[in-house]
């Protein structure tokens, strides 16, 4: 895929959705961090349903510590890997209080040192909360990047590096959300909705689905 095609793709994404954002529901940077930790191998909807039960009254590091592991586990048991995630959230809250004054650090290394936070989670927080043009490559972005030809790669990190290189700078901040939303609702894993796709004429995918 050439530079001109990529430019046009992201211009169309911007025209259709000028201010894209995460579908996770949160009010503070801390709540975003917790929601992203919980969202690994889970849907945003399932996370939102769970966090709505305890964020209003316990949506701070100290609030969740006061809630305790057992009650937190009960709140998030509808989410995949909930036992491990509950333990990671409790440990993360303690570290935030002990090391960072209860604040979420705007630093990749410090974020990745938190239990349950890997590169992808750190990128989401850096992008969404702090305005860093980072791209968190999840299954949707990996699929869209390879299928369309925007940034093909064999690994998550390779795709991330290529997106950072290939996406025009003016679109880097929002590219993360546009690509996720496109993969979630249009360029889906099975039977992509090519007839409804706003960038179908620019996409390199050879097996486009046809209108029925």
Tell me what the structure shows.
The protein is mostly helical and 212 residues long. It folds into 2 domains: 3-20 and 135-202, Endonuclease Iii, domain 2, CATH 1.10.1670.10; 29-130, Orthogonal Bundle (Endonuclease III, domain 1), CATH 1.10.340.30. It has helices at residues 3-16, 29-39, 44-51, 55-58, 61-67, 69-75, 82-100, 108-112, 119-130, 139-148, 156-166, 172-185. The longest helix is centred in the middle third of the chain and has 19 residues, at 82-100. The radius of gyration is 18 Å and the shape is elongated. The relative contact order is 0.13. The mean pLDDT is 96.
Task: Summarize this structure as a short list of keywords or feature phrases.
mainly alpha, Endonuclease III, domain 1, 12 helices
């Amino acid at each position: 895929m050439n530079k001109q095609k990529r430019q046009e793709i992201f211009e169309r994404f911007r025209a259709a959705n000028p201010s894209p954002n995460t579908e996770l529901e949160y009010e503070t940077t801390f709540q975003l961090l917790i929601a992203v930790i919980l969202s690994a191998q889970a849907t945003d909807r399932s996370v939102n349903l769970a966090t709505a039960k305890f964020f209003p009254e316990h949506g701070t590091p100290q609030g969740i510590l006061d809630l305790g592991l057992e009650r937190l586990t009960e709140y998030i048991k509808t989410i995949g890997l909930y036992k491990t995630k509950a333990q990671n959230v409790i440990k993360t809250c303690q570290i935030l209080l002990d090391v960072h004054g209860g604040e979420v650090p705007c630093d990749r290394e410090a974020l990745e040192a938190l239990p349950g936070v890997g590169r992808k989670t750190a990128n989401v927080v850096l992008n969404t909360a702090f305005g860093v043009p980072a791209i968190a490559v999840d299954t949707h972005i990996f699929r869209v990047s390879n299928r369309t030809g925007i940034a093909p790669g064999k690994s998550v990190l390779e795709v991330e590096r290529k997106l950072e290189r290939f996406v025009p700078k003016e679109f880097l901040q929002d590219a993360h959300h546009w690509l996720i939303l496109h993969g979630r609702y249009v360029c889906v894993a099975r039977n992509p909705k090519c007839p409804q796709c706003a960038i179908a004429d620019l996409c390199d995918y050879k097996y486009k689905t046809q209108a029925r």
